[in-house]
Structures are given as structure tokens and as C-alpha cells.
Amino acid sequence: MRHMSGDQTLLKRINRVALIRQVKAEPGLSRVDLAERTGLTKTTVGMLVQELIQEGWLCQSEPSPGQGVGRPPLPLALDPERIGLLGAEVGVDYLNAVACNLRGEVLFSRRTEHRHRDAVRSVRSLAGLIAEARAWLLAQRRRALGVGVGVPGMVDARGGILRFAPNLGWHDVPVGSLLETELEAAGCGSLEVAVLNEANAAALSEYVFGAEHHTGPLVYLSMGIGLGGGIVLGDRLYLGHDGLAGEVGHTILERGGPPCACGRRGCAEAFVSQRAVSRQATGRDQPILAIEALVARIAAGDRATLRAAAQAGEYLGLLLQNLGNVIDPAVVVLGGPLCQLGDAFLRPARRAMQDNAGRYDYHRHSLRLCRLGLDACAVGAAGSVFQRSLHPLEALGEPEASAAPAPVRATRRTAQ
Ligand SMILES: [Zn+2]
Fold this sequence. Notes:
Bound molecules: zinc ion
Order of helices and strands: HHHEEEEEHEEEEHEHEEEHHHEHEHH
Mean pLDDT: 89
Shape: globular
Strand content: 15-25%
Number of helices: 12
Structural class: alpha/beta
Strand order of the largest sheet: 5-4-3-6-10
Low-confidence stretches: 396-403, 410-416
Radius of gyration: 23 Å
């Protein structure tokens, strides 16, 4: 067998990823379809597909019995059985770990209440949950590709460091390396770890595993005690210059408005959050009513709470209008507990979005609710592991020229 040079290996990686992407976007394609879609030769596609099937990325199902003569094409899909993705979340008062397959189907989920004291202890407990999820995968004869972790704060993604988590009181915690150590101690060997902000992770849950299979921009709003945001642009999370992009909750909607937890006034979060609705409904900052209590008040027709929900919705509509103008997203996904306020909150939001659309509104993004509920962050963190393997150039630490690597046609000399 001929020795492959570094370039040929890279070429092959790019082509493999192109095939996985294509099948992910259009399940049911045959090898012939793939050759047509990617411009690769049938021989190359055949060889690479065989490899991807052997490694557990793709699977083929039996063709539907046709009337034609000859061998019918075999439909390909992402293999749901053999590769597992691990995801976890450090919540403000809970820990969560999931295992899912390449299609984002949650196979295992373990969630525990957790009172944080010091970060090392919390990370150790989280490692315990992840180890359980991994053991479950192994028992099912699946291999774990890696683990992603969502945390409620600002993250320096390069070093896996949680810079600041206001609701945990943590500063500069190297979550990534701590978790790697704890996972190794828990018998997980060396598992690759990625650390993400929780709203960014939730955005990936919709982007990587969403039904749309688009590559257009996606905006995710995580509406709970606070208001977080995640933006996917050009097929990857948009992190900005310092990894701090997407903080739409702290864009100011009203000059001199109510105080925000960040120290400014009139931030979107000061209007669109559980904290804001609770304050508006009760006239007090503390205690912040639980989402169940707010939902019960709305169901009982409590006028102050209904007004509070409607006002939060109106500001959400303004925010959505602003985001539409800046990003022109393909999809906006609303997630987090505040969505449970239902129509009392969401109807005014849609109305305000339209009322503030101006005369020439060409935006036609779809607006929908998050599909995964409480698991959104952990599943998205797991999705980040898959997402990373779909960007082979980034895995080598090189900036990527284009959004999604295009297949590279092999020359005759290239060993594929
Ligand atoms: Zn703020």
C-alpha cells in the first residue's frame, strides 16, 4: 500500500466530510446521487462510503422493491447505532448529562439537582454523570466521539475556560482541563472535551440536529432568569473577536430603562426574562417567581401577570425585529422556561415584531419554539462534538477558507 502524504490525508478527510454532510442534509441518497451532488467519481464515493459505513458514520437500508432491472440503489443515512455523542450542562441549580446519536436522538439522560459550592466539586459530580452516560454507550456497543459541556457564563473557547458565570459566582475556572482530569479519574480514558456558553450550545442543538437542514444563519434566544443568545453564522457558532458575541440580552432597548443584572439600564434582559416578568407582576425585585407560579397566575387570569407577560412579549418583538435587521437569519428559535408563558407572551411578541417591521419588510425567516426543552443545552453541547468533526480543517488548527468544505475532486495520482 502506498504511503499517503499529509495533503492526501487532508484531501480524503475533506471528501469524507463532504459525503457525511450531504447524507445528513438529504438522508436516502444513494452512492450515485452522492457522486452527482459532490462531483466526486463513483469509484471514490464507493470507497469512501464503504469506509464510513465500516466506521459507523453511515448506514444503508434495503431498497424499496422496484420494477426495474438490475441492482437497485441503496439509500444511505447517518448511522444512529454506532457512534455516540456526549453532552452535559452545568446549570445554575442542576447538572445534566446526555448521550445521543448522530441524529440528535437522546438515548440516555441523567439530570440531578445540584447546589454549587466550589467549582472542582461540581465538575467532579458532572464527570460522574458523563461517565455514566459513556458507560451506557459502551454497553450498547457504541463508541463515544467526545463530550461537549454548556456552562452559564462567558467562555474562552480556546482554553475551555469559564471566564465568568454571574449566577454561579465563578471566575476563571478552567472547566475543560478540570473535566478532562476528572473524566480520566472516573475511568473514561482521554475523552476530548469542548466547553461552550449554554445559549451557544442550545443554538447548536437546533442547528446541528434541527429539521431544517439548512446552512443559513440561525439565532437562538434562551429566555429564563436571564436572556442569553446564540448565533450560528457561516456554518459555525459566531463567537466574535473575544468569544463574547451573541449577548443579545444586553443590547439596550430603552435608554434609562430598568436596571439590568449587568449593571446597565434598559437591556433586553431587563424586559424579557423571568426576573423582569416577576418584577412587573409583583412590583418587587425579590423573590423571583418560579416559572410554574407565573404560569399558574396566567392560567388563573391574574391581570398584573398577564400584563407583565404581554409587556415582555412586546419587547421581545422589538428585539426580534432588531435581530432580523442585523443578521437576516433563516431561522429564529425561542427556547428557555419563559416560553411556557405561552400565548400571553408569544402573541404580543409576534404582533410587535410585525408592527415594527417598517414599510419594506423583506425578512422571511421562520420563528419557532425550541424542540428539546430542558435537554437543549446538553444536546447542543453533544452536537458541538459532531459539528467539530464536520470541520476537519479547524480540527487541525487552521482557519477555514469557506463555510463548508467543498469536495475536492481526486486526480488520478491521488490515493483515496
Ligand atoms: Zn444587561
